[in-house]
Amino acid sequence: MNKPNLSLRGLEVFQLLAKSGSVQKVAFDTGLSISTVSHHLKSVEESLGVSLVDHSRRPMILTPAGAIFVRYVEDGLKLIRRGEIELTLGNLNEVRDLRLGIVDDFDSELSPELAQLLAEAMPKCVFKHHTRPSHQIIRLLYEQKLDAGVATRPISDLSNLVEYPLLRDPFVLAVPHGSKIAPEDYLAGVSGLPFLRYSQNQIIGTLIETQLRRLKISLPNRFELESNPSILGMVAEGSGWAITTPASYVRARRFHGRVELHPFPGKGFARTIALFTLEDYPKAMADMIAETLRRLITRHYPEPILRSFPWLAPDFRVLSDP
């Protein structure tokens, strides 16, 4: 009796199931029915003549044979995906799909123009655009739900990701307009205003808290917010002060007349915003997206902000690919 041949879809389903251990989750992520996912897995196992997963466990776990085979499947699928994309790079008219994540700091300023430019360069491409905080974009990349993502570089290890640096974004103090309090007094906790923290679930919040610990600065934790506009809105109302960045300030444009920026006292620090892709994503495509982003960032961020805050130069600058 002839066994069915291995199918590409079956291998993709097996790879996803190896990561999640759940037929239901694979069905949800792929849009397939549960019975179709089960059929694909069964076909792969029948083709090989071995059980790849322990069907009696919940969540499912790989059998010893499955643990060996999944490594080859992952390598093979990477090569196939790279080949599919590289075949189209000589003619961007043939690019069919791009799943791009943009950090929410850039969404309103860059995303509409970026989408227009990429649509002109790739007229047959279907764009799937996601706006998320940086930590979620990094997670979606590792889950292979994005082809490329613009995010703040985290402190954690970035193995299996390729980085294309875009912007050096230094941390500054944001205080109510007209405040006569010295920047050092805010960090010393004697300003009389509460410190408005970014959520420590976010990369920007983690970077700030790490620097404060390095400097042995301890400030009461009364307000911890995920929304950048909410933080700068409270600063504008005179309800507190914050450690933020010029790019975050740009995003809260309606508060500009009521918020002042000051250099971070003492040893300064910065975040890097970059384009990230998985290792198998073609470099030529990533370079094209990164260069488009750098042109847009230059026009929307350093150029207008440095006119108002010239002391930010040269710390606030677009980065080239090393």
Automatic annotation (TrEMBL):
InterPro entries: LysR_HTH_N, LysR_subst-bd, WH-like_DNA-bd_sf, WH_DNA-bd_sf. Keywords: DNA-binding, Transcription, Transcription regulation. Pfam families: HTH_1, LysR_substrate. GO terms for molecular function: DNA-binding transcription factor activity; transcription cis-regulatory region binding. Gene3D superfamilies: Periplasmic binding protein-like II, Winged helix-like DNA-binding domain superfamily/Winged helix DNA-binding domain. Residues 6-63 form the HTH lysR-type domain. PANTHER family: HTH-TYPE TRANSCRIPTIONAL REGULATOR, HTH-TYPE TRANSCRIPTIONAL REGULATOR GLTR. Belongs to the LysR transcriptional regulatory family. This is DNA-binding transcriptional regulator, LysR family. It comes from Shimia gijangensis.
